[in-house]
Amino acid sequence: MKLINPINTAVSLSLLAASGLFQPAFAITTPAGQDKFRAYTSNPKKTTDSLLSATVEWRIDDSELYRTTGLSFLSEGKTDGATAAKKLATAMSDGMTELYPSWRGITIDHPKDQPELTIANKAGYSISTVTFRDYTNQALSFDLVDKDFNEAGVQVAIDLVYTADVEYLEGFSSKKSLTASNGIIEITIDQQKPIVIQTDGKTTRVLEAEIAKQLKSSIISENSLLPHLIGKDTRNVKVFDGSEIQLLDLAAKSITIDITDPSLGVLTKFKFKDDNTSVKVAEPRSMAVIAAVLGLLVGGYFWFTNKKKQA
Hints:
6 helices, alpha+beta, about 30% strand, seven-stranded antiparallel sheet
């Protein structure tokens, strides 16, 4: 009769028991549609072709960040709000074709003939940041579809910029404007009474300070809410100008920004929470299990030694 080696048995049992010592927590996959972002476009007010662009950045759960950028050039009389939304949605979708299919972590939905587009995460991905750059002087509205910005942990920044930064051509224009010209900036939070600022030749820093003074729960920051993107297309990505309005706890469901001054553009930035990546945590069971494993090893050793003596 063949004896079962008790040492091997003890080791096998100990390994089985030890496998229960460190039970990994379930890896949580971010559900599809957890992060949603919607933009409403409108008719451009500038007669010349002007830039509207958007960059969306997302993360694969527990892994790298990826992004897509869409650029479109619009003008009054040639483009309405629905066309603006369609062109931007198409440009962002085209931007993702450079990525492997497994890296494309968002969907971009544009309802036919509607001045809106909705961005949502796919399962296993989460939206990190969204940036809209508007130099067309159109009214833009933003919301999270069905969530409050503060409750969703989404921070907002408004950065006024000069149109000349993207439209000025060295040698073709005699002077690059470093101030606003004439018009208004109107910002509306939910259905509240809008704040209205006259631009009247002021600098962007002065205008941002005036807005922050009227806009509840806002601050002026010398640091950008989002990391600065570096790109070869100078029509789109510019160096941060050192000042922006930040709403870090915006207890509202929507924000609308409307600028009529042709010398001004606006960058609206949204920073999403980035805390929903998968995490595996080893959780020790109990000292009782450890004692049981040690008991098996010691007991097996003495049993096998005693058998050998009897033989």
